[in-house]
UniProtKB/TrEMBL annotation:
It is found in: Cell outer membrane. Residues 367-807 form the TonB-dependent receptor-like beta-barrel domain. Residues 1-29 form the signal peptide. One of its GO terms (cellular component) is cell outer membrane. This is TonB-dependent receptor. It comes from Aquipseudomonas campi. Keywords: Cell outer membrane, Membrane, Receptor, Signal, TonB box, Transmembrane, Transmembrane beta strand, Transport. PANTHER family: PLUG DOMAIN-CONTAINING PROTEIN, TONB-DEPENDENT RECEPTOR-LIKE BETA-BARREL DOMAIN-CONTAINING PROTEIN. Residues 55-158 form the TonB-dependent receptor plug domain.
Length: 841
């Protein structure tokens, strides 16, 4: 019997007898050396390793791999992924956070770390903000776009798989350490960062280098900010395009990231291996937001002036997100059988201690001769009296605290048997998974108002007692900022129990559980140059939601539950045209549950107005078709083209049910509803190559480019109160960008590495207005980010690095209906970084 040696990695990376049979072909022979040990340095080596993983995968996937110094090429996991075909990111304060795949929104994708699902720390989302994960803790990132039956079926755009560092990624002792300073051009602040990783192998028992330990850590504190002007879409389009209100906002932020990963691998013998993967990440965000706004007495055109009410507002909060993940698993070869077992536990949480959610100072009198110019980036025209604190008085303070926890526990078992089918290498595989997820949210809100009734004089409430210096605002004149300490001092003299807002507190609380039982059966067969995978996956879901609603001042407990089953067939084919070219085709089916915010059971009914979540929503179901070709061009080179089509049922959108059913007599009944169906289709192109055959110095050139072009067709329906009839209108899928593209030009030799990259994402529908009000739909404008990085090896192991991000000072712009009408405009400025990394190369 042939003796096989395990790689001591998780199940997805082992080589079965079926894979060994294929290893005699040129496709696998070129990759064999990369399976056991990875020790690469530089852009080309990292790209080459990523392409090898992509090449031998049974799925359509894209990979980002850390280089030899155990660092991804970007600040965090989200920004590293945006370089891949079909991938873009949603940004927060200029930093990449949530990942979109093939133009579809982040909530339609799943994220796993070392094989176990990562829950979301945010109370209303499924999407995981990947900037929580420091890049130093990650060895590779994979976006799987066609799911095989042995994978969770909970992604529509793609499944994002995060692999952390293993001692078996390197030969013997490995260590690296980095230090960095970053400068934010918008605020003029300089911030530190430190990171490091170490791994080694040890001999236990009769084995040699059969036990590995790997550890990685990272800490960063970044001070930065942004300038913002927004209308929230408050445009009156009935009499021209007249603006009703606008607000200026200044953000000052301190963002601290820290993370620790500790992994163990043990290869007991030639037939058994075990692993323990642990990861802890902490993301602390301290934000101070000063706002100054006006509401016009009569909606105005640019250049007009009139009376307006004015206000000042402060928000000051500290928010901590934590992600922890523990995965224990093993693999056992038993003749022709391979057994894989894994147990996973992960928890995400968001803790927002007591803070000023909003302290509002109202103008004592209306301001005269107030106007604005420029409908895209409105500039407020107002006299100096708007900057005088004596003209404002404290009106209301909202004090809030919130705690969210999302826990995922799962266990899965996979059993595979290699055999021959009519003389062809084949493998039968089956298994199951039990997943138990619990998400809860606890919100408490106190609303302080009517301060005069509690003995405060007009003089004590004057804004002059609560100011703190001038606000550094880059989009116009702002005036003085507000002091959180002074506001908190005033609140400290009050009995806060008298201000508890029971309605807002209880309605936002919920407890949801989602239990999923899954089983699958699949078979793989290799017929000469053709590999076929056929299978069926079953997922049964039990969902329960508990919360509280309020109906005309009376509280009601609510509990909703639903059960549903899905049978999900799949078919994959990969055909080797020649040693460097392969065709891929796949038909898959997936199911994505609505977000927790959409499923929230709480409701508010006040007279003829209502707003509520919808825990009875159906999950999104999609049939997916992919067809493509890949041609590999030697080291770090590939050209590929894929077409894809998704037939989606039950997509979720905002809806007003007033005038229908039980909401027949209501003026508003805002909730979420399932759309009937939607179609998404597109083309995905990618090219990368290292020109090492050119004469020096041109042999150091690298070029990478990819673009995804997609279109979607969807329709929504709702009741039109004016006509008394149901209406329909066509929309794009929310959060779907029609064009996503990347361009990278690099050059490197043994000492110097340079990279200039650009990332483009076209506009997308952000929020749907009412069925009859297309003009107030909100869209996020297209964005192009340009970054530059350079690295120089001062010695063999010591590298000096420089990075410049957002060189073009790209802004974030949301518009109302058409591009000329602001909903939100925000500027961040570029960031510059200088650092040193030492590695025992």
């Amino acid at each position: 019997m042939h003796k096989r040696r395990l790689t001591a990695r998780r199940a997805g990376f082992h080589i079965s007898a079926l894979a060994l049979a294929i290893a005699t072909t040129p496709l696998w022979a070129a990759d064999e050396a990369a399976v056991e040990h990875v020790n690469v340095v530089g852009q080309a080596a990292s790209m080459d390793l990523s392409l090898k993983e992509q090449r031998r995968s049974d799925s359509v996937e894209s990979v980002v791999h850390a280089d030899g110094v155990a660092q991804l090429p970007d600040e965090n996991a989200a920004e590293a992924l945006q370089r891949l075909p079909g991938v873009s990111v949603e940004r927060d304060q200029g930093e990449g956070r949530f990942v979109s795949v093939r133009g579809l929104g982040p909530d339609l994708n799943s994220v796993s770390i070392n094989g176990t699902l990562v829950p979301s720390p945010e109370s209303d989302r499924r999407a995981v903000a990947l900037d929580v994960l420091p890049a130093e803790l990650v060895q590779s990132l994979t976006v799987v776009k066609t799911l095989t039956p042995d994978m969770d079926a909970n992604s529509l755009g793609g499944s994002i798989e995060v692999e952390s560092l293993s001692a078996f990624d390197h030969k013997g002792l490995f260590y690296t350490g980095s230090t960095e300073a970053s400068y934010d051009d918008n605020t003029g602040e300089t911030s530190p960062k430190f990171s490091g990783a170490v791994s080694d192998r040890f001999s236990l028992g009769d084995g040699t280098d059969n036990f590995g330990i790997a550890a990685a850590m990272s800490w960063q504190e970044r001070d930065f900010g942004s300038d913002n002007v927004e209308t929230g879409g408050a445009w009156d389009f009935e009499d021209g395009a007249r603006l009703e209100s606008l607000e200026q906002r200044d953000y000052e932020i301190t963002r601290e990231r820290s993370g620790l990963g500790l992994n163990f691998d043990y290869q007991a013998d030639d037939y058994s291996s075990y692993y323990l993967r642990t990861l802890y990440s902490r993301f602390k965000d301290t934000e101070t937001r000063n706002a100054a706004g006006v509401e016009f007495a009569d909606a105005q055109l640019p250049g007009e002036s009139g009376d307006a009410e004015g206000w000042r507002e402060l928000k000051d909060r500290e928010e901590t997100q934590e992600v922890q993940s523990y995965v224990l698993g093993g693999e056992r070869l038993m003749g022709q059988w391979t057994l894989n077992a894994q147990a996973g536990y992960s928890q995400s949480s968001q803790d927002t201690p007591g803070h000023i959610a909003g302290a509002t100072f109202a103008g004592n009198d209306d301001f005269a001769d107030v106007g604005f110019n420029d409908s895209k980036k409105p500039h407020l025209n107002i006299g100096s009296e708007f900057s005088d604190p004596a003209n404002f008085s404290l009106d209301e303070v909202e004090w809030a605290e919130e705690d969210t926890t999302d826990t995922e526990k799962n266990i899965k078992l996979d059993l595979a048997r290699d055999y021959e089918l009519a003389g062809h290498a084949a493998q039968a595989k089956f298994g199951g998974k039990l997943s138990r997820r619990d998400k809860d949210n606890d919100t408490q809100i106190w609303t302080y108002e009517d301060f005069g009734d509690f003995g405060f004089s007009d003089e004590q409430l004057s804004m002059a007692n609560f100011t703190k210096g001038e606000v550094d605002y880059g989009l116009g004149h702002f005036g003085p900022g507000l002091s959180a300490d002074n506001i908190e001092s005033l609140l400290g003299d009050l009995d806060r129990s008298e201000f508890f807002n029971e309605e807002e507190s209880r309605v936002n609380d919920f407890d949801m559980s989602e239990d999923i039982d899954a089983a699958y059966l699949m078979n793989t067969v290799d017929i000469d140059d053709l590999r076929i995978i056929a299978g069926l996956r079953y997922e049964g879901t039990e969902f329960t939601a508990k919360g509280t609603g309020i109906r005309d001042g009376e509280f009601e407990s609510i509990e909703a539950d639903s059960d549903y089953d899905h049978w999900l067939p799949g078919l994959h084919a990969r055909y080797q045209l020649n040693p460097d070219t392969q065709l891929r085709a796949a038909w898959t089916n997936s199911v994505v549950r609505p977000t927790f915010g959409q499923l929230a059971p709480g409701f508010v009914i006040d007279g003829d107005e209502a707003s509520f979540g919808n825990p009875t929503l159906d999950p999104l179901e999609s049939s997916n078709f992919d067809l493509g070709i890949e041609h590999y061009l030697g080291r770090a080179g590939v050209v590929s083209a894929f077409v894809f089509y998704k037939d989606i049922d039950n997509f979720v959108y905002n809806s007003d049910l007033a005038g229908t059913g039980e909401w027949l007599d209501f003026a508003e009944a805002n909730t979420f509803a399932n759309g009937d169906s939607a179609d998404l289709y597109g083309l995905e192109l990618a090219y990368s190559q290292k020109f090492d055959w050119l004469p020096a110095p041109w042999n150091g050139l690298l070029l990478g480019a990819n673009a995804t072009f997609s279109r979607s067709d969807a329709s929504i329906s709702g009741f039109d109160a004016d006509s008394g009839t149901f209406r329909e209108r066509d929309i794009d899928l929310p959060n779907q960008s029609e064009t996503v593209g990347n361009l990278m030009l690099g050059w490197e030799d043994d000492k110097l590495s340079l990279r200039l990259s650009a990332n483009y994402k076209s506009e997308y529908l952000y929020e749907v207005a009412s069925i009859t009000d297309k003009a107030h739909d909100l869209y996020v404008d297209d964005q192009t980010f340009v970054d530059f990085s350079a690295g120089y090896f001062l010695t063999k192991g010591l590298q000096l690095k420089f990075e410049a991000q957002n060189l073009t000072d790209e802004s974030y712009y949301v518009y109302t209906g058409s591009r000329g009408y602001n909903a939100q405009y925000e500027e961040y400025g570029p960031t510059y970084k200088l650092g040193l990394t030492y590695t025992n190369l």
